[in-house]
Design brief:
Pfam family, one: PFK
EC number: 2.7.1.11
CATH architecture of one domain: 3-Layer(aba) Sandwich
Keywords: Allosteric enzyme, ATP-binding, Cytoplasm, Glycolysis, Kinase, Magnesium, Metal-binding, Nucleotide-binding, Transferase
Number of helices: 19
Radius of gyration: 28 Å
Helix content: 25-40%
Family: Belongs to the phosphofructokinase type A (PFKA) family. PPi-dependent PFK group II subfamily. Atypical ATP-dependent clade 'X' sub-subfamily.
Pathway: Carbohydrate degradation; glycolysis; D-glyceraldehyde 3-phosphate and glycerone phosphate from D-glucose: step 3/4
CATH class of one domain: Alpha Beta
Shape: elongated
Length: 632
């Protein structure tokens, strides 16, 4: 029997205990949402299988404070559901989906998405591990909660530019018009402040027909200007009942607050978000739209730097790319071009002078090849700049200093003054060029899927959600999951190891860091090879036998607890499961076998890959135990 897991309320999201599977605690989620308990079986009741519920509980702590909707099932299944209009408006009528009479979709078998369909966040799991977190699958439903004639939709774009913005606008308008027969769609001019400070733009398929061929956004955009009360007043006064908000993490936070206020007022208004960031730093989703286009365009700058550098003696091409906190554009453009000798990103610190520093590596590459190409993300090396900027833009983002110019000058000074070595450095900054272009074919298709998914969700009565691609499937994700953290490059992951293998660059770790990492690896080796350690310490084979007997006794002693643990895991009560897990570990702290048996598998795999990638970064020979684990 599936159940709703109602977390205990606290004003601090970090104390909400609903987050227990491979996710970080939210620090940015605003806790002023409201849920009321009602019975409804239309929007997410299934046929009795999966996670379908005949009664859906919309959670409240009695003070109108929203709590995430968590549905649990067997084998550790967890659905992080999105809000629905019937959570606070229980008597809404439903209508047949107009798509069932649409000739374009008559040939599609099982076009409507089943209410029990969900998409797992982690597609690779161990056979004995819980199924993990899922999100509701996006797509059209058989019943909708808006009549086509009553829909009055609006679209707003906020934040920086990104390839694909116009495509998303176009597909929302065309999706509403052609799939659902909606005739009234407004464009909000100039971002959030356009709700109350500017005129609106009537949108129709004719108006947006070819805007996908242009960069930027026809609606205009801005940072800041978010006044929740004025925005919702404007929505209410204009009779708008569907709001589509396109923007990055800051914009989605604003969308979440708008949803909260709309819910507090009890308005029948669906709020849908489409995540946008050129940096690809939005969590949960596979990637953000415009990222592929940005990487493709960034290669043009890298190719130019490569041509410039190899055409002259001791030529250096330095390219600065976008990436305030995440180096995905720099990393993927480097991997795609194959012409880069060094890639510097915010997640991987580096230093300039001394043994193992950047200058030493540049000198080495110039002597070997006579030229080199360096790619640096705009957020990399900010700690090297003498004057740290404290200024912020209208969105609250820190204004970064130009690290590209700084590194360029430092390289010139080092080789001219210290090495007396002539170099020719060309600095290329395509930062804003790569985001002001139309989206490529891949991003155009992706934008279409995102836009249509958002339209399907709003028409089906879902609200307070972001549409996003998770493991290749379109999903509806609660706002708080999108805004709680940032997606960053993991430098102990295989993708970063692939980059190091491609560029042959060092890790730029100093001697102390390398020694520290060596000690960490040695500790892991010692912990994972207790039998070998006993022999190294001069102990006889009897000690090993005695240790094995001790482990066996401990396992028997913990038998009852482990049975409870397995049972608890099968019922999906993860909080109880972790409490029992803690009891098992407390009783068997010296037994590594139990720890390995019940430790969440992701930690085990991360530890092994951390050792492997760290060894690669630090040029440390891979320990034999890592290979043995790989064979297993």
């Amino acid at each position: 029997m599936d159940s709703i897991l109602c977390p205990k309320y606290s004003s601090s999201v970090s104390s909400l205990n609903y987050r227990f599977l491979e996710t970080s605690t939210s620090t940015n989620f605003s806790s002023s949402l409201s849920f009321t308990c009602h019975n409804n079986s239309n929007h997410n009741s299934g046929s009795g299988s999966g996670f379908g519920l005949s009664t859906t509980a919309a959670m409240s702590n009695g003070n109108g404070i929203y709590k995430p909707k968590i549905v649990t099932g067997e084998y550790g299944y967890v659905l992080e559901d999105v809000p629905h209009l019937t959570d606070y408006l229980p008597d809404l009528p439903t209508y047949p989906n107009p798509l069932q009479d649409n000739p374009a979709y008559s040939v599609v078998k099982q076009y409507f998405v089943h209410t029990d369909d969900s998409v797992p966040q982690k597609i690779v799991v161990h056979k004995d591990s819980p199924r993990g977190i899922h999100f509701r699958r996006a797509g059209p439903r058989q019943k909708v909660y808006f009549d086509s004639d009553e829909v009055h939709a609006c679209i707003v774009t906020c934040g920086g530019l990104c390839p694909g913005l116009n495509t998303v606008i176009r597909e929302i308008v065309c999706g509403l018009y052609h799939m659902y027969g909606v005739k009234r769609v407004l464009g909000i001019d100039g971002g959030y402040k356009g709700f109350y400070a500017r005129n609106t733009i009537p949108l129709s398929p004719k108006v947006v027909n070819d805007i996908h061929k242009r960069g930027g956004t026809i609606l205009g955009t801005s940072r800041g200007g978010h006044d929740t009360s004025k925005i919702v007043d404007s929505i209410q006064d204009r009779g708008i009942n569907q709001v589509y908000i396109i923007g990055g993490d800051g914009t989605q936070k604003g969308a979440s607050v708008i949803f909260e206020e709309i819910r507090r007022r009890g308005l029948k208004v669906a709020v849908a978000g489409i995540p946008k960031t050129i940096d690809n730093d939005i969590p949960v989703i596979d990637k953000s739209f415009g990222f592929d286009t940005a990487v493709e365009e960034a290669q043009r700058a890298i190719n130019a730097a490569h041509v410039e550098s190899e055409s002259i003696e001791n030529g250096i091409g330095l390219v600065k790319l976008m990436g305030r906190y995440s180096g995905f554009i720099a990393m993927y453009a480097t991997l795609a071009s194959r012409d880069v000798d060094c890639c510097l990103i915010p997640e991987s610190p580096f230093y300039l002078e001394g043994e193992g520093g950047l200058f030493e590596y540049i000198e080495k590459r110039l002597k070997e090849n006579g030229h080199m190409v360096i790619v640096i993300a705009e957020g990399a090396g900010q700690e090297l700049l003498s004057q740290q900027s404290t200024l912020q833009d209208a969105s609250g983002n820190k204004l970064l200093q130009d690290v590209g110019l700084y590194i360029s000058q430092r390289i010139k000074d080092f080789f001219s003054k210290q090495k007396k070595m002539p170099i020719n450095l060309k600095y290329i900054d395509p930062t804003y060029m790569i985001r002001a272009i139309p989206s490529n074919a891949s991003d155009n298709v992706y934008c279409t899927l995102l836009a249509q998914s958002a339209v399907h969700g709003a028409m089906a009565g879902y609200t307070g959600f972001t549409s996003g691609l998770v493991n290749g499937r379109q999903t509806y994700i609660p706002f708080y999951r999108i805004t709680e953290s940032q997606n960053k490059v993991v430098i102990t992951d295989r993708m970063w190891a692939r980059l190091l293998s491609s560029t042959n660059q060092p890790s730029f770790l100093c001697k102390d860091d390398i020694e520290e990492k060596k000690e960490e690896i040695a500790k892991v080796v010692k912990a994972e090879q207790p039998e070998k350690q006993l022999m190294d310490d001069g102990n006889c084979a009897d000690d090993i036998v005695a240790k094995k007997e001790s482990e066996t006794q401990t396992l028997k002693k913990c038998g009852s607890d482990t049975q409870k643990l397995k049972k608890s895991g099968s019922e999906g009560h993860e909080l109880e499961r972790h409490e029992l897990y803690a009891q098992v570990l407390k009783r068997s702290a010296s037994d590594s076998r139990i720890v390995e048996e019940w430790k969440p598998r992701k930690h085990t795999y991360k530890k092994r890959w951390f050792n492997f990638n760290l060894a690669l970064c630090c040029h440390i020979p891979v320990q034999r135990h890592a290979c043995e684990h790989s064979k297993k």
